[in-house]
Amino acid sequence: MENSHSSLVAYVHPIVVLGISDQWTRKMMNSNDAKPKAIGLITGKREGLKTEIFRSHILEVEEKMDDGSGGLVFDEDFLQTQLSLAKEMFPNEDLLGWYVTNSLIQPDITEIQLNQQLSKFVEHPLFLKFDAESLHLTGHLNMELLETVIDPNDETKTLFRKMPMHFETEASELIALEHMASFSASGDYYHTSASKVVSTLAASLHVLNQRLRVCHAYVKDVNAGKIQRNDKILSDISKLHLRLKALQSHPLVKTDNKLTTSSKQVSSIAAITALYEDLHAVNENINTLFSEPAARRALSLNLFANV
């Protein structure tokens, strides 16, 4: 390993650390191995000399059987699947490298072989070493990021160069961190900000359902001649209908079974958010049209008659 430091700078998001730590903890609880290893991919962005690591993704490894060395190799089919799903959910992020939980600073022969295998998917992969044992025993975080470089004296040989690393946190990550910290302290989810957000979303879904019912009742009564036609409102409802129809035929629906539950929830929330503004505009137009008391009573009678 080279003693010099890389000119690049990496910014690691806390979600990456939480993901690796969680993977190692589950392996520790479910494995008979005294020192289990958690291995996976890291994805993010490169912009000039700045590298930002956003996410970690679990990988499967299998033992090499052909040479009898007992070494490990990535399950490339699983790796390709993980890369495809990651690119589908986060199209602006690219594969940067991989990680392993190991207390040894110097990469061993197995890690060098795994790094060479990953080089087929990304040039000069980053290598994140995460000391999960030290974190578990002492509570101190010890991790190091290495950059893969070519030996200037031997192009067939790769070296590892230390890369300066900092932490960077976004507002959305602060919600997740607060959620976990509050759960650890209180023992339940009801006192966390995340639970309050979910409760708010549930209330918004209820309002969304009610407004869709109002739109349906309005169109039905216009067709029946019970209330006067308003082209502006009907145009807004038509646009809303087209957007709902477009969501049903979205390409992601065909691969819905490949997405995780949390990813499906994120996709659903994004779709609901996109529709909310249109519904709000329709609601304002309806309120304006039926602002007079008599008209409001007439609409109420029609709505109750259809319940």
Topology of this protein?
Blueprint: E1 2-5, E2 9-12, H1 14-30, E3 39-47, E4 50-58, E5 61-63, E6 72-74, H2 76-89, E7 94-101, H3 109-118, E8 126-130, H4 132-138, E9 143-151, E10 154-162, E11 165-167, H5 171-186, H6 193-223, H7 231-248, H8 251-254, H9 261-289, H10 293-305
Parallel strand pairs: 1-10, 2-4, 2-11, 7-8
Antiparallel strand pairs: 3-4, 3-7, 5-6, 8-9, 9-10
Helix pairs in contact: 6-9, 7-9
Q: What does this protein structure show overall?
A:
The structure is a single chain. The chain has 307 residues and is α/β, with parallel strands linked by helices. It folds into two domains: 2-169, Cytidine Deaminase, domain 2 (3-Layer(aba) Sandwich), CATH 3.40.140.10; 193-305, no CATH class. 52% of the residues lie in helices and 21% in strands. It is built from ten helices and eleven strands. The chain has helices spanning 14-30, 76-89, 109-118, 132-138, 171-186, 193-223, 231-248, 251-254, 261-289, 293-305; strands at residues 2-5, 9-12, 39-47, 50-58, 61-63, 72-74, 94-101, 126-130, 143-151, 154-162, 165-167. The longest helix is centred in the last third of the chain and has 31 residues, at 193-223. The model is unreliable at 183-187 and 257-262 (pLDDT under 50).
